[in-house]
# Entry
Amino acid sequence: MFFIFIADIAISIVALFLMLLFRYGTENVATQWSTHFIPFIFASLIFTITFYIFNLYSFRFNKNITEFIGSFIKSIIIGLCFSILIFYIFGDFFKLTPKTNLLIFTSIFGIIDFYFRIKIKRYFDRQGFNRKIILIAEEENNLIQEIKDNKNAGYTTIDTLKVLDIDKIFSQNPDLIVTDAVKENKQIFTLMKKGVFVYTIKNFYEEVFQKIPIKDISKEEALHYVLQNKTVFNFFKRSLDIVLSVTLFVIFIPIFILLAIAIKVTSKGPVFFKHKRISLNDEEFIIYKFRSMYIDAEKNGAVWTKDNKTDVRITPVGRFIRETHLDEIPQLINIIKGDLSFVGPRPERPEFTPQLSKDIQYYDLRHSVKAGLTGWAQVNYKYGASTEDALEKLKYDFYYIKNRNIFFDILIILKTIAKIFNY
# Structure
């Protein structure tokens, strides 16, 4: 989707020209261009960042028009708000604090870009955009089903082979080969020389689905992910946790008070929910949340989290604060204390971890990093309600553990914000 990104930048330049033409006339466009160009390029980059956060540069935007429209409108509104903030803070540096101009620019950019993306979507729908794959695997592999289950990924399987057959491959003209036949080095090299992209199954799975195929990695690989030296990263991660959690705690104090009153008035019981969870090195800690369930919700023992709309244990206020994730606000206290990080695997309940560790390979290794208020699994997958869900989320957790860095943490935080806006 790099083409779409370049198109967005080009459209923003056209929108800037049209805004200046509308505001200052043909005689003054050249004069005003030099003043407005750099500040509005910054504004354009803000819009592209919000597009990225809302998945408008992924293949998903091409598949669901309703989801696309909602995400596009939210991106434009949030981009405008951040642009106003940037101009307000750095107005002296830019020597420009536009108000009307920014609104006109955003309107023109939004209309043209929306029209362009709709045209692109219709073109893709007519022509077909999925890249063609031939899968070569000696044994039955669940990758085919994974591709079928994720039609938004942009790939389609045109054939499956048990052995590498170069003539048959060339006759079908695939875009890429996905194989576990790594021993066939000479034949693979022949394919690559002919311009065919070749992936191992594990590399393809990780790159396309952004998760790790747990069942296909060795113990040595799994240990390598968790034993990487991340001393500098851990220092900056903890610094980010402290600064961000203290700042948000102060900002959310009014919401704290309002939610506490709403919870207390609408149902019996305490305002806060306290529960044991597991974090780094299997250590237990007490997690804090706003209470979203009735006080006798688990009188018969712990159960998996259910869908918010059908779970009868949840109070009316609780349903709202769960959907908007406002019930998580008190966990800022856990972050300040050091029990949690902002980003990491979801802290699991100790009642479930022994069985999950028994049923799922490498499950214990997720506790080699500190648990998080949000995480890669949380922004990509639903609430876990079974062992199968826990396995799927572990694939995302391992992807985070393998690739963790401060920029990835910031991206996850931004995607979490976008997910809240998608409520």
Notes: The mean pLDDT is 84. The chain has three domains: 2-127, 131-209, 225-421. The CA atoms of residues 130 and 154 lie 4 Å apart. The radius of gyration is 25 Å.
